[in-house]
Amino acid sequence: MASRNNSKPSESIQAPVVYTGYGLVNWKEWAMVKEAPYTRLCYRKRILTVNGEFPGPTLHVHKGDTIFVTVHNRGRHNISIHWHGVKQPRNPWSDGPEYVTQCPIQPGAKFKQKVIFSAEEGTLWWHAHSDWSRATVHGAIIVYPKYGTNYPFPSPDAEVPVILGEWWKRDVMEVFMEFLMTGGGPQVSDAFTINGQPGDLNPCSRSGTFRLTVTQGKTYLLRMINAAMNDILFVSIAKHSLTVVGADGSYTKPLTTNYIAIGPGQTIDALLNANQDPNHYYMAASSYTSNPMIPFDNTTATALVQYKGTHSPSSNPTLPLLPDSNDTEAAYTFFNSLRSLASKDHPIQVPLDISANILTTISLNTFPCPRNSSCEGPNGTRLAASMNDISFVNPPIDILEAYYWRINGVFGYNFPSYPPLVFNSTEPILPLVLQIPRKGTEAKVLAYDSSVEIVFQGTNILGGIDHPMHVHGYSFYVVGWGLGNFDREKDPQKYNLVDPPFRNTVCVPINGWVAIRFKAYNPGN
After folding, report:
1. Does pTM top 0.90 for this prediction?
2. Which one of 82, 356, 439, 463 counts the least CB within 10 Å of its CB?
């Protein structure tokens, strides 16, 4: 087996060494989950990491590679690792979501995962898929073109992961456990981060601010990842435009823009042309929020784009103009502007003859507070969420194992294809009976190779919120979206069936809907 470095050159990251040959990569001793001390916002604490790094190590592969990762859990809590956007054809056992495709890896245990890269090309990411561990346990996956092929755009001079995240002064697991115990909304983060750093607009953060050093006239491929827990983020660089060329591990038609909107779990590949006067310029990221009644982190994370050369940088670099935090039009105009490349070398196949239709509501809900307890949800209740009026309950063992071994009583096959109650999802005042869902662990079984359309319908229960939706084992075509109630007669007539974006995560707008399509070719996912 030949040995060589499998990564592209970069001015900004130290590429790990991997061993490769014939499309097979063996990644040895890569994922050691352990705590490490970090200081941010003037406070020092221990956080859960992989290999002591925050963000975690970048994984470099080529399209068609297969890797093996042994995850060693030396932390204090159960853990699992998910390869976000990796389709894992016929290999659901290594996908990573706890109690769905595997039981969590217990402290002191280890688990070897096989990760198959098939059709993906671009930027993906890996993260913990247990509780809130992914707030600090995450990192980039860079999938280069297949050997012997090139990018469908001019090769950049360098490539830089830009991971957007969140930071709490408190222990993240304490925040999560308090959220579960009280039933109220979780404490919002104390800062957003760019590559693990809040930036110099935040206390005690100037020296650690992430700096991207560029050379005038060169082009940089920014591989953006939104690793925030539940925040759509606006991102921009002062006095520079960005040209989007990929999203969620798939190429797009070039889109030049002054800002990017990126939902939680999504990735964006964007070209930065260093074409301004040599100086220092801020990169900034801040949150979009749609429901003014829900608290949110209103801080701004910054990084510095600094030009090489002999020049005197401004003492106060220019901040980019980001959309307002409640600018729904800005967020969804960007999402809707993305189009698949749909070229000869990168064709698309949008399912046209649909054999399985699913319409599911997505709602915020509440459960009554248990007797002799105090709850901090609306009117003394406990917050919950549901799809088609079912609030998911973790089973005692993972669903895939129960399905494979035909173990009864772990989950049901009765997830409905349509909402059990039909109502005006955007009505300002909805009956209280809609607030309380039923609890269940239900699956939807699809015929192999069926053509599937899912319409996600947001509701105004508790005022509504935007919902990020991710489908494991698949990417999908986002063929339509809108505000208000989905109209099954009129809205499909406006679908984009020519070059819709091919995503693995989509944001459903507050009190709106999104329609996606895919072929059910990947059993077990």
Report:
1. yes
2. 439
